[in-house]
Amino acid sequence: MILILLSTILIIPTLLGFGKIVENFSGSLFEGISSKVFSGILGISLLWTILAFFIPLNIYVEIITLLIGLFYFFKDKLYQEIYSFSKKDTIPIALISFIILLASSYYPYILDHFGYYIPTIKWLTEYGLVKGISNLDLTLGQMSVWHIFQAGFSNFSDPFLRINAILLIVYTIYIIEKKSWIQLCFIPILLLFSQSPSPDLPVIIFSMIILKEILSGNKKTSLLIGFSVFVFAIKPTMIWLPILSFLYCIFIVKSNFKSLIFGSSILILFLIKNIWTFGHPIFPVSIGDIGVSWKPNPEVLKISSQYAILKTYDMQYSYQEIQQFSSIDYIKNWLFLNGIKSKINIFFITSLLIFIGFAIIKKNKIISLICISLIIKTVLVLLFSAQYRFFIDVFFVIFFVIFINYFTKKKAFIVFTSLSIFFIGFLSFPNLIQKYVPSFRLSKFMGTFEKEQLYKPSSYIYNNFSTQKVGNLKFNISKKYSFNFDTQLPAISSSYISDDVKAEIFPQLIDENNIKKGFIWKKMNPKEKKEAQNVINTIENTNK
């Protein structure tokens, strides 16, 4: 907890300083300390995304960024804005921040933390954005802008990767500044994402802030669209937000096309980044093939697509069974899966239908546009992979819009306190979850409270891997574990090695003397097939 607090004390002033620089050029979305921090996050994320094409986001990049941000923090006396908080506001911010620091000090348990978040951040800090990295490990092709932001602060100021906790503290400041009490109810739920640099947390926070500004009639359309596209760049399943901002600017504010320039620039950067790392504009689909030489093998993408369909049905049906589903079966079997995911799916559809009815009754233009945007997002998610983690944000939106005028400060704090106790207990006693909610599989990866958390956040160390070679690629693979969260780079997950061997291909270095030049896939010759089979045999023998 103490080390996360020290990270917070260092990073927030840096973001304030950078935010001031950004707002000197773009203006502010709204008034207050939190606005400058959010602008700082946007500015640094975009700057580091551009830099990552050319250099790794190492400690030199981090120190220079810290020095610039802190210089402007003191030069423009931004600390005076912090002193402007009254005692009545400071006490709840401090108490809520304490709860955030406590929750974020627990062990990370989200599986993507080990298979996607940490490996991505390691690549960014050691090499930057690597061309065709998805040929090595398809998951790495995502390279979320949020992980670029986390990577830049991971060398020195936030080595335990708790940037989400810092964002939650800034979100608390925003709630107090704007008196948007309903959003206080969201913080206990978001505590579940505070142990990892999960992109779900920032996109939910930013979308709720933008939604609040739209409902409040904010006319700064260029910034609304820009921040919305930024959220989309963090996680493309948030497609509803840029759609909403665009519709709002066209039909409500009736702004001109100049307001699209900022957002379009961010979108172009996002597409270029994806093409560079993945080979196509939008991960993980091959739509918009421009024919670059480092794009993934079609067979690997096909396997990935099939796996996404299996995940839609929680791996409870085989791919062949799903292919034989009728149109009714697709819906019925998704709604009535075994376990907790069935309840989430039913609740999602019910909530959406209630919101559609709410929008019809209210006859409010903005609410109608929100409803249309959510419907578009829902259709797209259902078409590609209807996993509950892709539509969790919809619950927040619906709750926010329907109950925005219901929550007073007192009611919000009662809900916040109750839910905080529940979710801290949830994190502290995973054995109870395993016993009473066995279908919530993530509970098996949750660690219990340890007194060392009061000083530094809990984290796992494994560092057990072997080195293999196929063709010109020398790589590492974790022993007796599926993920490579602390394996020396370059590392490949065992599942992707199996997929590659099935497709009779294997990733190779474009320049065997320079990993930064990137990766392509190559059809294996007889010698390479033998080498790859030896790797498969090693994996199987190790896992016995």
Would you identify the regions where 5 or more consecutive residues have pLDDT less than 50?
none
Give the CA-CA distance, first to last residue: 39 Å
Q: How many β strands by DSSP?
A: 4
Mean of pLDDT: 91
Order of the strands making up the biggest sheet:
1-2
Computed CA radius of gyration, to the nearest angstrom:
23 Å
Q: So how many helices? A: 23
Q: Globular, elongated, flat, extended or rod-shaped: what is the shape?
A: globular
The helix content, as a percent range, equals 55-70%
How can the largest sheet be summarized? Answer: 2 strands, antiparallel
Give the topology string: H per helix, E per strand: HHHHHHHHHHHHHHHHHHHHHEEHEEH
Notes on the protein architecture:
- This protein is mainly α and about 550 residues long.
- It is about 60% helix and about 5% strand.
- It has 23 helices and 4 strands.
- The chain has helices spanning about 1-25, 35-50, 60-75, 80-85, 85-105, 110-125, 145-150, 165-180, 185-190, 200-215, 220-235, 240-255, 260-275, 300-310, 320-325, 325-335, 340-360, 365-385, 390-405, 410-430, 430-435, 495-500, 525-540; strands at about 465-470, 475-480, 505-510, 520-525.
- The protein has a two-stranded antiparallel ribbon with strand order 1-2. Strands 3-4 form a two-stranded antiparallel sheet.
- β1 (about 465-470) and β2 form a beta hairpin.
- α1 (about 1-25) packs across α2 (about 35-50) and α17 packs antiparallel against α18.
- The mean pLDDT is about 90.
Descriptive key words:
544 residues, mainly alpha, two-stranded antiparallel ribbon, 23 helices, 60% helix, globular
